[in-house]
Amino acid sequence: LKEKMKEQSWNILFVERGHGVSMFRTKKTRDLVVRGIPEALRGELWLLFSGAVNDMASNPGYYTELVEKSLGTCTLATDEIERDLRRSLPEHPAFQSDTGISALRRVLTAYAYRNPQIGYCQAMNILTSVLLLYAKEEEAFWLLVAVCERMLPDYFNRRIIGALVDQAVFEELIRVHLPQLTDHMTDMTFFSSVSLSWFLTLFISVLPIESAVNVVDCFFYDGIKAILQLGLAVLEYNMEKLLTCKDDAEAVTVLNRFFDSVTNKDSPLPPAVQQGSNLSETKSDHPKVDITDLIRESNERYGDIRYEDVESMRCRNRLYVIQTLEATTKQNVLRVVSQDVKFSPSDLEELYELFKKEHFLSCYWNVNSPVLQHHDASLPYLDQYRIDCQQFRVLCHLLSPWSHCENRDSLALWTFRLMDESSDCLINFKQFACVLDTMYNGSFTDKLKLLFKLHIPPAFTEVESLSPSKGGDLSKEELIQFSQLSVPSVEEGLESDSLKSSPEKGKGKVDIQAYLKQWQDELLKKEENIKDLPRMNQSQFIQFSKTLYNLFHGDPEEELLYRAIVVVTSLLLKMEEVGRRLQSPTSPIKSPVAVTEVPAEIPREGQEESSSEQTEGSRAQSLRGNHEWSFAFEQILASLLNEPAFVRFFEKPHDIKVKIESAKNLQLKARTRM
Predict the structure, then answer these.
(1) Coiled coil located at which positions (predicted)?
(2) Per-residue pLDDT tens for 478-507?
(3) Which of 60, 157, 215, 447 minimizes the number of CB atoms within 10 Å of its CB?
C-alpha cells in the first residue's frame, strides 16, 4: 500500500513537472526522493538523475558489443572479478543463482574492457550488484559508467585519490559543524579510516540493503553532497557516545551498532532479504532508527552545504592528498631500495628526487615519450616513475663515476639494456639505484662483473643495433668513432723489461694474497652467478679492453694502468694459446700474441690518430683470421687481481654528494634553457 501511495505521488509530480529528461527539479522532487523512490520507478529515476539515460541513448548496441569483445578475456581485472563475484550481496536471493552472478560478471567485465585504466576495483562489485536489483543489465552498466567516470571521479583505482580527497573534505566539514567532536578526537585520521567504506560503497557495505538503497536514491539526485550530509548526521546522532569513547576501537563499535539498528519501515522487501529487522532485534540496547528520518534530518541540518562549496574544498584538498600520497610512495620506494644498496638515506632520497624529476620532465617536454604513454598511477610503487634510455643517458652522464669515459654514451646504452629486463624500454628507480650503487659502493669483483656483463649479449651488440633511431642519442658515425679507439699492444708487455722492475709498481703495494682470499670468499657466495656468465669472445674482449682504456684516461696512474692492460691481455692470450694446444697438441696453432705484434710504444696524447687506427684495424683483422678464442669471467678477474694498479683504481672511493649537487644545478639550467 505504501509503495502504491509513493508511485501515485510521483505520477502526480510527473503530470505537474514533466516526465523523463524534461522533468523540473523542485523542492517537492527532493522531498519525494528523501522518502525513498518506489521500487517500480527506482531504476528509471536513477538513470534520469545520473544522466546515464543520455549515455545509453547516444550509444545503442555499445554494451552488447563490449560484452562480445570482453567475453573470454583473461586479465588481472577478470581474475579479481571472478574472486569477488560470490561476495557481492551473498544474502540476497538474486545473487544466490547463476543468473544474477552471470549478469554481474558481464557488467563488470564489460566495464573493465571499456576503461582499462580503472579496470576493476573492490567495491565496484557491491555497487553494481545493487544497481542490477533495480535496473536492466545494460542500464546497470551505464549507471556504473556514470558513477565511476563522472559522479565519483578517481574513486575506483588503486590509489583511490577521489575517495581520499572527499574524506579530507569530510574532515573539514566536521571541524566546521561538529567542533566538539574534533576537540575530543586527538587524531583526525580516525574519521578517514572509519568513513572510507561509506564513500566507496555509498553506505551499502555498512547499512542493511533495504536502508542503503534510500541512500543511493539521494546520491543519484544530489551527488556526493548527500553522502557528506548523511555522514555528518550519523556522527551527530552518536555524538554523546563518541565523546565517552576511550579509543578508536570503542568508537568503531558504537558506529557499527548504530548502523545495525537502522531500519526502513517502508521497505517492501520480504523479511528474508531484510537485514536490519533481524539484526536490530539482537541489539535491544540500541533504539531503532528509520533511514527516512535520518536522511531527512541530514537535509534539514546540513542542507545549506552547497555543491559549489564542496567542489571548492575538493580542489583545495586535492593537492594535499596527492602530496601525502607522493610522500608515502617515496617512503615505500626508499624503504625497499635501501635494502639492496649502500647509499646513505639522504643520498638515496636525493637520487630519487632527481630520478622523479627526470620522469616528470619527459612527460611535460616530450609528448611522444614512452614514459608518458606507459605512466599509470595505479601501478605498484616502484613502477609508478620510470625513465627511458635517453633520460637514463642524461642521468648517467650527471651521476656516474665513469662519466669521464670517452665512450660514455655507449656505456650508458649498454647499461640501460642490461637493466631493461622487461624489454619495454623503461627502467624503475630500484634498477637505476642498484647499478649506481655497484659503480660507487661495489667491490672490485662487483664492478668488474658489471663491466663484463655490459660487453656480452644482450647488453652489448653490434654498432648497427647500438644506433638509436631517434631521441638525440649517439649516431652510427659517433659509435663507430668510439669503437675505433686504440688499445695498447699486447706484445709490448712481453718486451718491456722495465715494467717488471718498475719502481712505480711497488709504490702503494697491495696485499695480493688478501685480495685473492677475498675473491675466493666472494666466489663461494656468488659461485652460481659467476658460472652462469657466458664466455667473452674476441670481439667483445677487444671492446672490453677499449672501455678499460677509456676509463683510465686522466687518472694519476694512467700510464701504469695502460701498461697493466698490456700485461693482463698478454697473459690471457697466452693462457688461451696454451689451453688450445693442450686440447689439440698435434695441430699447429699460431700464437695470437705473435699475430698482434705492433710497435711497443704506449700511445700518448698528441700521437697521430691515423696510426693508432691502422694498428687497431690490422690487429683486429689478424685476430679474425685465427680460430675464435674466448675468456671466462674467472680468468679475467684472476688476471686483473694480480695488477695492484687495477685494484687501486676500482677500489678508489667516489663521493656521490658532489655529483648530486652538480646534477641538480645542471638539470635546472638545462630545463631553463629549454
Answers:
(1) none
(2) 433 333 333 333 333 333 333 333 333 333
(3) 60
